[in-house]
Design a protein that fits this description.
2 domains; 6-stranded antiparallel beta sheet; single chain; PmbA/TldD fold; 10 helices; alpha+beta
Length: about 450
C-alpha cells in the first residue's frame, strides 16, 4: 500500500499505457472513435461495536471501461482484470457489441475542440499510510467517547474509520489523455439512547481529503451522542400547514431534486417537472446556485468531465433564474444543445444568497417544523409531487420545543423551491452539494389527527 500511496505516478503510467493500447486496438478493429476509462484504488476500513472488532477490510480494486463507436453504433465492455490479454478481449467484446446495435445519431465523442487542454492540480492527493491498528484505535476512541458522553446512551451500532486512495485515467481517440488522483478519509458513529419513553438512534460523521482535517475522534463520538439523546421523547405534531426548515443534510437532497429535474437524461425522456424551464424562475430572486468543478480540495473536483470536456465554474441558477441544464455530451446531442461538461454529474455545487444564523431562522419561523431526516421514496420528478416521512423538531415561539417523529411532509417541488424564504450560515461542505439550512414558507405536515 505504501508504494501506491507514495508513488502513484507508476500506477498512472501503467494505466496510460493500457489506455493507448486500447485505443490502438479499437482503431485496428474498425472503430471510428473510442474512449476508455481506467481506475485503480486502495481502501481500508476498520469498525468496532461495543469495543470489539466488527469489520476489518482492505480492498485493492482496478477496472477498465471501453466504449467504441462505428457508424453511429456503439458498444461498451468492462473488466476488473488489467492484464493485457484480458484488456484486448474487452476491446474485442466492445467491437462485437457495436456490430449488433442500432445506429444512434447522438452517439460519439464530444467535439475535439471541447477537450481539456491544460492539466490542473486541484489539491486532492494527501496520502497517509494508516495501518489497521491505527484505524481500529481511532474507531474505538470515537465509540467510547460517544458511550461516555451521556448516561442515556444504552447501546451502540458501532464506529468506523476508512481511508481510500484512487487514481484514474481517461483517454479518447481525439488524442485526449487525462489523469487524476485523490484521497479521502471518513469516520462515523451510530448510537442508541433510551429513556422511559423508548429508544432513539442517530449518528455523526465526517469525511475529508486530508486525514489531519478530520474532526477530532472524541468530537464525532460526542456529536453522535448529542444528536441521539436530543431525539428522546419524540412525538407527533398536529396536522396542518406550517413553515418548514430543512437542516443542511436534508436541504442538500432538495437541491439534488432540482439538479435531477434539469439533468439531460430526465429531459430527453420527457420525465421532469422542469421541462423547457431555462429562463424561468425556479428559486427566489435572492438565491443562486453555482458549480465550481475546479475548487481546490473540493469533494468532487475535476479538471475534465467523463467525456474529457474541460470543466469551468458556471452558474446553474442566477438570481432565481435557471440558466442552463446539466448535460453530458450524449444528452446534449439528444436535446440539440451543447454539453455543459457534466458527464458524471455536477461538481461542487454551492447554494448562494444572504444567510442567517440558525437562531435567527428559528425566530423567523415562530412556530413550525425543523426537518433533520426524511424517509421513503415519495418524490416524483415527473410531476414534482413530494411526500415523505420525516423526523426532526417542533419549534414554538422561535425556540426548539420537542423532538418529532412519525410525520409526513408534503408539497410540490416547484412550489417548495420557489418558496424558500431564507438560507442558513450552517453550510455543510462535506458533500458535493453544499448548502446551509433552507426555510420554506409553508408545507403540509401530517401528524396527529
Amino acid at each position: 500500500m505504501a508504494d501506491f500511496l507514495h508513488n502513484p505516478e507508476s500506477e498512472i503510467d501503467r494505466l496510460e499505457t493500457l489506455a493507448r493500447r486500447v485505443l490502438d486496438r479499437a482503431r485496428q478493429g474498425g472503430a471510428d472513435q473510442a474512449e476508455v476509462s481506467l481506475s485503480s484504488s486502495l481502501a481500508r476500513e476498520a469498525a468496532v461495536r461495543l469495543g470489539e472488532v466488527d469489520v476489518l477490510e482492505e480492498a485493492r480494486d482496478r477496472g477498465i471501461r471501453v466504449t467504441v463507436f462505428s457508424k453511429q453504433c456503439s458498444g461498451t465492455a468492462s473488466t476488473g482484470d488489467l492484464r493485457e490479454a484480458t484488456v484486448d478481449e474487452c476491446v474485442d467484446r466492445a467491437l462485437a457489441i457495436a456490430r449488433h446495435t442500432q445506429p444512434d445519431p447522438a452517439a460519439g465523442l464530444a467535439d475535439a475542440q471541447l477537450m481539456a487542454s491544460e492539466t490542473v492540480d486541484l489539491d486532492l492527493w494527501h496520502p497517509v499510510d494508516l495501518s489497521m491498528p491505527d484505524l481500529l484505535a481511532r474507531a474505538r476512541e470515537i465509540e467510547q467517547a460517544g458511550r461516555d458522553a451521556d448516561a442515556r446512551i444504552s447501546n451502540s451500532e458501532g464506529a468506523s474509520v476508512s481511508t481510500e486512495a484512487s487514481v484514474s485515467v481517461y483517454a479518447n481517440s481525439h488524442g485526449f489523455l487525462g489523469s487524476s488522483r485523490g484521497t479521502s478519509y471518513s469516520q462515523s458513529c451510530v448510537l442508541i439512547a433510551a429513556d422511559e419513553a423508548g429508544m432513539q438512534r442517530d449518528y455523526d460523521w465526517d469525511t475529508r481529503r486530508r486525514f489531519e482535517a478530520l474532526t477530532d475522534p472524541a468530537d464525532t463520538g460526542a456529536g453522535a451522542a448529542r444528536r441521539t439523546v436530543r431525539r428522546l421523547g419524540a412525538r407527533r405534531v398536529p396536522t396542518g400547514k406550517v413553515p418548514v426548515l430543512f437542516a443542511p443534510e436534508v436541504a442538500r437532497g432538495l437541491i439534488g431534486h432540482l439538479v435531477s429535474a434539469v439533468s439531460g437524461s430526465s429531459l430527453y425522456r420527457r420525465a421532469s417537472f422542469l421541462l423547457d424551464a431555462v429562463g424561468e424562475q425556479v428559486l427566489p430572486k435572492w438565491m443562486s446556485v453555482v458549480e465550481r468543478p475546479r475548487l481546490p480540495g473540493g469533494p468532487s473536483s475535476g479538471w475534465y468531465d467523463g467525456d474529457g470536456v474541460a470543466t469551468r465554474e458556471s452558474a446553474l441558477v442566477a438570481d432565481g433564474e435557471l440558466l442552463r441544464y446539466v448535460l453530458s455530451n450524449y444528452s446534449a446531442r439528444r436535446l440539440g444543445l451543447q454539453t455543459t461538461a457534466n458527464a458524471g454529474g455536477v461538481r461542487n455545487l454551492s447554494v448562494l444568497g444572504p444567510a442567517r444564523e440558525l437562531e435567527t431562522l428559528l425566530k423567523d419561523m415562530g412556530s413550525g417544523l425543523v426537518v433533520t431526516e426524511v424517509m421513503g421514496q415519495g418524490v416524483n420528478l415527473v410531476t414534482g409531487d413530494y411526500s415523505r416521512g420525516a423526523a426532526g423538531f417542533w419549534v414554538e415561539d422561535g425556540q426548539i420545543a420537542w423532538p418529532v417523529e412519525e410525520i409526513t411532509i408534503a408539497g410540490h417541488l416547484r412550489d417548495m423551491l420557489k418558496n424558500v424564504i431564507a438560507t442558513g450560515t450552517d453550510i455543510d461542505t462535506r458533500r458535493n452539494i453544499q448548502t446551509g439550512s433552507l426555510l420554506i414558507e409553508q408545507m403540509m405536515v401530517a401528524g396527529q389527527q
